[in-house]
Recover the amino acids of this structure.
């Protein structure tokens, strides 16, 4: 009787490094997909509940995409092998000076006394205008451009492609770790 022994060793450190690298790639691919979804939501402006306040101020049904600053300010902080956390955030801040053009052509200019705020957050969550603002004490409804993307992530073909790529990278990392 002949017996054959088959032995395979694993380099655990190498396997961990490869798995971390694969995970970082997956997180970055997902973050890119989420950012593209946010950009699309802002540009399409498929918001049903626009207030008459913003419509009267801008004379438009597209207040989120009026200047394009909100969509251009979606940024990704990429994941690395040392820090497995990818982050998508909106960095749009209000400026200290403002200029509002009304539909009748009249322009209101001014300077804010408060420090610049992240208005992407306030657009997403909704807010109430300040008593000293141009249109005081008005409730501006939320125009959520973030959660729609996260809710539909599993249906997104780019997400499915990223998952498939992760599985391939994971298999390859296991093969590379074996001796």
């Amino acid at each position: 009787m002949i017996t054959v022994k088959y032995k395979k060793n694993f380099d655990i450190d190498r396997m961990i490094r490869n798995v971390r690298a694969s995970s970082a790639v997956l997180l970055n691919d997902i973050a890119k997909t989420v950012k593209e979804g946010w950009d699309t939501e802002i540009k399409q402006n498929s918001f049903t509940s626009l207030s008459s306040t913003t419509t009267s101020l801008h004379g438009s049904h597209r207040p989120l995409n009026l200047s394009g600053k909100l969509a251009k300010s979606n940024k990704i902080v990429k994941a690395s092998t040392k820090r497995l956390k990818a982050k998508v955030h909106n960095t749009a801040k209000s400026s200290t000076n403002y200029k509002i053009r009304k539909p009748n052509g009249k322009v209101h200019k001014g300077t804010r006394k408060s420090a610049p705020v992240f208005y992407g957050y306030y657009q997403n969550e909704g807010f109430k205008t300040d008593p000293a603002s141009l249109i005081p004490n008005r409730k501006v409804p939320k125009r959520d451009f973030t959660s729609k993307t996260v809710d539909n992530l599993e249906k997104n073909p780019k997400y499915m492609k990223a998952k498939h790529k992760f599985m391939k990278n994971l298999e390859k990392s296991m093969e590379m770790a074996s001796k």
Residues 46-54, 56-62 have pLDDT under 50 and may be disordered. The first strand starts at residue 74 and ends at 77.
